[in-house]
Design a protein that fits this description.
Keywords: Membrane, Transmembrane, Transmembrane helix. The chain has one domain (about 65-365). About 60% of the residues lie in helices and about 10% in strands. It contains 14 helices and 9 strands. The strands form 2 sheets. Strands 1-9-6-2-5-3-4 form a 7-stranded mixed beta sheet, with helices on both faces. Strands 7-8 form a two-stranded antiparallel sheet. Strand 3, helix 5 (about 180-185) and strand 4 form a beta-alpha-beta unit. Helix 3 (about 105-125) crosses helix 4 (about 150-165) and helix 11 packs across helix 14. The radius of gyration is 31 Å and the shape is globular. The chain starts with a helix and ends with a helix.
Amino acid sequence: MDDCVDQCAASSNNWSDFTASCLSESWNWLLYLYHTYLEEAFLFVHAHYLDVYYFGWLAWVFWPLVITFVLPAVLIIFVYASALFLQVYRLRHHIRDAYAMEPWEGARQMICVFWDATGHLWHGFEIDGIEKLPENGPGLLVYYHGAIPIDVYYIISKLLLKKKRILRTVGDRFLFMIPGLRLLMQVFHVVPGTVKSCAELVKDGHLLAIAPGGVREAYFSDSYYNVLWGKRTGFAKIALEANVPIYPVFTRNCRETIRSLSIGRTWLRWIYEKTRMPLVPIYGGFPVKLKTYIGDPIYPDPNATADEFALQVKNAMESLIAEHQPIPGNILRALYERAYPATIPTSELKASGDHPTDLTNRHLS
């Protein structure tokens, strides 16, 4: 019996040695094949068909183009990072903070610190005229809409950190269809908004921001900063019904940091008018100088119609643009202003005495 066991053990050892020998031989054969054929083939292709310096030159040429489309994606990542932070915050502080303070106050503060730091470091963001806004009480901010309203993110952060006020905003309907952003819009009080609901908000003493141009102005305006409000008068109706002042708000160079492609704009606008889907490619994310100007309050005349009051606010917005924005906008100039901050030059409007519409028409011609 013992002899049988010994024979089996010997046979097993012989089989293990044989297997190890086969694996070793196979590995040596693969190495030989690589060194003999594959390495030589690679060197041949590299020498005759590939030019490393040429591909390096191509990378150098196209790198700026790639960056211009990557930076807006980084901005979107920041937005989703804010939304993800709120999800984590809700799980962590759902019970504890519910009894200590307003549940989302700490989360809002932290997100606003992040966006305020981003605005300071990337754009040297400033606000001129923030003291015009009331410490308490209502107000309606009407702002010019850039391709992406990153300036509004900075304004919301400044108001919360400096004046301890939450700026509620009216968002386009398509925003509420974007997955993953519902909680973010809930915490920062972004509302779809009707005239009645918005009037109730400001009657309750809140600050509310609205862009009458909306998506149409965001993607289909251009470097001449044309105000594309069409026949929209809802913001004027809100101010008249609630009897609150309107503050025109404009950010210098807001169309130079992120731009929408002008190629195929006519067809893209036709698609938008039919479907209300903003299918316009954007590019940029350039670190240009951004400075927001808050105009003097415009108080509603109870005897004025909504159309008349809307036209008054639109004229004020055009004056603000003509006073503070060089026309046409220029990315290189805006980058220079970021690198070398200087006093904003005297506007062409003040020098010429033209109405802003006349000024814009003169540039267009």
